[in-house]
Design goal:
15 helices; D-Maltodextrin-Binding Protein, domain 2; 13 strands; 2 domains; 376 residues; alpha/beta
Length: 376
């Protein structure tokens, strides 16, 4: 099942859960009004802390936040971030706060939060996951705004409604340097529609967000819908269709195909660092553009039991945490001197469009990739 298909079903589940909560009998165990009262009280208590800190800046903010957070002494994080262990280790070394972490895939993190909120169990203070799931939670009113100087420094694509990016996934065209020699690297996505690339390209079956972003980019450039669909279909006809970026990256390193159209930059960078013959930077010139950018980020739970600790972690992830993410070849939320996207044309994945019209894009991408060859 593709990512946005899952996301739509979860969004429907969220609505059903909320309707069920609103319609509960007041006399039932944990019934309707009692549920609302408990959530409202928790939110009001957390809001006092959030609003106080959001109104501070500089050293005053840091000192006040550390004092309040260490007094709370605990923090609960739900995340799909595979680099979270390193972030938590650094945070616990810096502050006298005990952190508990639940980690699953992005869909399971979302489901857990929705179910716990419906049951009036406020299990997490902070969430770190993908944009699609964060947008669902934000739409359901589960976050408190995070404000301050650090958020203002985040790339504009990551200053979302209700949540803030901590890192980005960049979809890039990558290649195996043994299969694609220096000077032969593709210079544009359009080149990969040429029959000479037959069987040497790979697309990923779940990359609906990348597809929608690139599709809309070409429409904005003046191509007709028929022209864009034809281009995408011709590239797919040259492609082997992989399932999962990790698997696709391993097959690229092994030379099962020469080019991937939508690899994560950090997947290629990590493999190259370990000696694999892969790259997304040509020997001469610039990478294929545009680079599609998708934020992954963090939200402050409105009902947080430890709101100061949640806010301190957010501040820390946008400062010291950025250094940890950079070492993991992640693209940080706040551009650094070594910004891998500097000078490149960047296009944001249209997350709100996907949330509103997910089935349309799922179906269109499914039709396109049928032209390719599935990897057995």
């Amino acid at each position: 099942m593709r990512h946005h298909t899952i996301l739509r079903s979860v969004a429907v589940t969220a609505a059903a859960l909320l309707l069920a909560a609103c319609g509960s009998s007041p006399t039932a165990s944990g019934g309707g009004p009692a549920r609302n009262d408990k959530a409202e009280k928790a939110a009001a208590k957390a809001q006092e802390v959030y609003d106080r800190i959001n109104g501070l800046s500089g050293e005053e903010r840091r000192k006040t936040l550390v004092e309040l957070a260490e007094k709370e002494g605990k923090l609960s994080i739900y995340t799909s971030n595979t680099d979270m262990d390193k972030l938590v280790e650094g945070f616990e070394d810096a502050y006298d706060i005990e952190v508990s972490v639940y980690r699953g895939n992005s869909e399971s993190v979302l489901q857990r939060i929705l179910q716990e909120q419906q049951a009036n169990y406020f299990g997490n203070d902070f969430v770190d996951t993908n944009a699609g799931e964060l947008n669902v939670l934000s739409k359901e009113g589960m976050f408190h705004p995070y404000k301050g100087e650090l958020r203002d420094k985040v790339r504009k694509e990551g200053q979302a409604d209700g949540w803030t990016a901590a890192r980005f996934n960049a979809f890039v065209v990558g290649w195996n340097t043994n299969k694609v020699k220096p000077g032969q690297e593709p210079k544009s996505f359009e080149e990969l529609a040429d029959p000479k690339w037959k069987g040497q390209v790979s697309m990923e079956v779940g990359d609906v967000d990348w597809f929608a972003g690139l599709y809309k980019y070409y429409l904005d450039q003046g191509k007709s819908d028929a022209e864009v669909r034809d281009l995408m279909t011709r590239v797919a006809a040259n492609s082997k269709i992989a399932k999962g970026h990790t698997t696709q990256g391993e097959l690229l390193s092994a030379g099962q195909f020469g080019v991937t159209v939508s690899s994560y930059s950090h997947t290629i960078d990590k493999a190259e660092d370990k000696g694999a013959p892969v790259s997304w930077h040509p020997a001469a010139g610039s990478p294929v553009q545009p680079v599609l950018l998708r934020p992954n980020g963090m939200g402050l739970m409105k009902t947080a039991t430890n709101p100061a600790a949640a806010m301190l972690f957010a501040d820390w992830e946008l400062t010291e945490g950025q250094k940890i993410l950079e070492k993991a070849f992640r693209i940080g939320a706040i551009p650094s001197e070594k910004d891998p996207l500097a000078g490149l044309q960047v296009v944001a994945v249209p997350e709100q469009e996907l949330l509103a019209n997910g089935k349309k894009w799922d179906d269109l991408y499914a039709d396109v990739v049928r032209a390719g060859q599935a990897i057995k």
